[in-house]
Automatic annotation (TrEMBL):
<protein>
    <submittedName>
        <fullName>Acetylxylan esterase</fullName>
    </submittedName>
</protein>
<dbReference type="InterPro" id="IPR008391">
    <property type="entry name" value="AXE1_dom"/>
</dbReference>
<feature type="domain" description="Acetyl xylan esterase">
    <location>
        <begin position="1"/>
        <end position="324"/>
    </location>
</feature>
<dbReference type="InterPro" id="IPR039069">
    <property type="entry name" value="CE7"/>
</dbReference>
<dbReference type="InterPro" id="IPR029058">
    <property type="entry name" value="AB_hydrolase_fold"/>
</dbReference>
<dbReference type="Pfam" id="PF05448">
    <property type="entry name" value="AXE1"/>
</dbReference>
Length: 326
């Protein structure tokens, strides 16, 4: 795919007007208060992963609705003192995988919590273990239109809440420094990291790579690729439902969350990305911290890559960013 979106100069200046609902903050404060009302400390079960220098815990914590959410917590075996922690969210269709797939950050001295994504974990990778017990009205296959008729029912209200509760949970674990928490992820995981950064004001650092779930309307207008294509397909069948769909998604747009972020944000974007178009990423990046008095931010650009972005090349910049801020 060639570079198909705005020019580099236009992307760097791109600050679209989005249809943010007036009760956005109320919607999310009530959502999180309800979820936190279920209480519950995380439950850790030590796993023998055959590793001598790292320890692994199978974590279960209460997410949206108090539903049990799984994760892996990987830490250095000989850590001294409370550790900084990075909470990672997974890409679309994937799950938390297997413990030995999550070694890099712990080997660098961090605690690393990888959150399973409810109802996913069968599209790629080594699988997931967290069901989504909530049903849905008519929806296009996938997750983008589950509960699309009402923001209270939408799938990503649950997943984003799970992401916030993952931060709440890991802060309760012995040996974790609750004041040094970062969030991160790629694609869907990057979009969740953006959302959590806007909802948890004392997250210190955020690393969204080629983030999904940002500026939905723009994405649908300029790409046919899925998962955004699920929205297009739904609207092609449910003619005349545009207002309902866009209203629901306005409560879930990464641009709105980005505006509220206080964490230091390290983004990445690929200029040939037809899955998460560059302008949707820049819409969130350029809005980062704008309602919070500003926040440190930088973006790494891959001009000749598609949705794979930087892949393994992201590890070194991520470590440098975490070392600087945690």
């Amino acid at each position: 795919m060639a570079q198909f979106d705005l020019s580099r100069a236009e992307l760097e200046a791109y600050q679209p007007s989005i249809d943010e609902p007036t009760d956005f903050d109320t919607f999310w404060s009530e959502t999180l208060a309800e979820a936190r009302g279920y209480g519950g400390a995380p439950v850790l079960e030590r796993v023998d992963a055959g590793l001598t220098e790292l320890v692994v815990d199978d974590v279960t914590f209460p997410g949206f609705g108090g539903h049990p959410i799984k994760g892996w917590l990987v830490r250095p075996a000989r850590a001294q003192g409370p550790l900084p922690v990075a909470v990672e969210y997974v890409g679309y269709g994937g799950g938390r995988g297997l413990p030995h797939e999550q070694l890099g950050l712990a080997a660098a001295g961090y605690a690393h919590l990888v959150m399973d994504t409810r109802g996913q974990g069968a599209g790629w990778g080594s699988g997931g273990h967290t069901p989504d017990p909530v049903g849905s009205g008519p929806a296009t296959p996938g997750f983008m239109t589950r509960g699309i008729a009402d923001p209270h029912d939408h799938y990503y209200r649950r997943v984003i809440t799970d992401g916030v509760r993952a931060v709440d949970a890991v802060r309760q674990v012995d040996g974790i420094d609750p004041g040094r928490v970062a969030v991160m992820g790629t694609s869907q995981g990057g979009g969740i990291a953006v959302a959590v950064s806007g909802l948890v004001p004392d997250v210190v650092a955020s690393v969204p790579n080629v983030p999904f779930l940002c500026h939905y309307r723009r994405a649908v207008e300029i790409t046919d690729a899925f998962p955004y294509g699920e929205i297009t397909q739904y609207l092609s069948v449910h003619r005349g439902q545009e207002d309902v769909v866009w209203r629901t998604l306005s409560y879930l747009d990464g641009v709105s969350f980005a505006r509220r972020a206080r964490a230091a944000g390290l983004f990445s974007v690929a200029l040939m990305d037809g899955v998460c178009p560059p302008s949707t990423v820049y819409a969130a990046y350029n809005a980062w911290g704008s309602l919070a008095g500003g926040a440190e931010r930088t973006i790494d650009v891959y001009p000749y890559n598609q949705h794979e972005g930087g892949q393994a090349y992201r590890f070194a910049p991520t470590l440098a960013w975490l070392a600087k801020h945690l």
